[in-house]
Amino acid sequence: MTEHRYILPEPNARDALVKNLADRFARIRETSSADSFEVMDTFDWRLFKTGWLMLRSADAYRTIDIHTGQSVDTQALKSGKRIAFAWDFPESDMAAALGPVIEMRALIPLGTVACQHVQHELLNREEKIVARLVLETYRLDAGEHAVEHCRILPVRGYAKAAKLAVACLQKMGLEPARQSPVLTLLEKNGFSPGTYSSKVDIDLQPDIPAAEAVRRIMEQLVTVIHQNLPGVREDVDSEFLHDFRVSVRRARSLLGQTKGVLDQETTADLAARLKDMGDSTGNLRDLDVYLLKKTEYTGMVADVLKPGVAQLFSALARKRRYAKDRMIKRMATDAFAADMEVLDAFVRSDRLAESEAPAGNRPIGEMARAVIHKRYCRIVKKGRKITAATPDEELHRLRIDCKKLRYLLEFFNSLFPKDQMKILIKQLKQLQENLGDFNDLSVQQEFLVDYLQGITPKSPRKILLAAAIGGLITRLGIEHQRVRSQFLSVFARFDDVENRNRFQTLFA
Amino acid sequence: MKTIALYSIKGGVGKTAASVNLAYLAASRSQKPTLLCDLDPQGASSFYFRIQPKHKHNSLRLLKGGKRIAKAIRGTDFPGLDLLPADLSYRNLDIELNGFSHSRRRLKRLLSRFDGEYSYIFLDCPPNITLVSENIFEAADIILLPMIPTTLSMLTYRKLFSFFEESRLDTGKLHPFLSMVETRKRMHRDTIREMMAAGVNLMNAFIPYNAEVEQMGSHRMPLVHYRPGCTGARAFANLWRDVKTRLHKETPHGN
Question: Is the ipTM here above 0.85?
Answer without folding.
Answer: yes
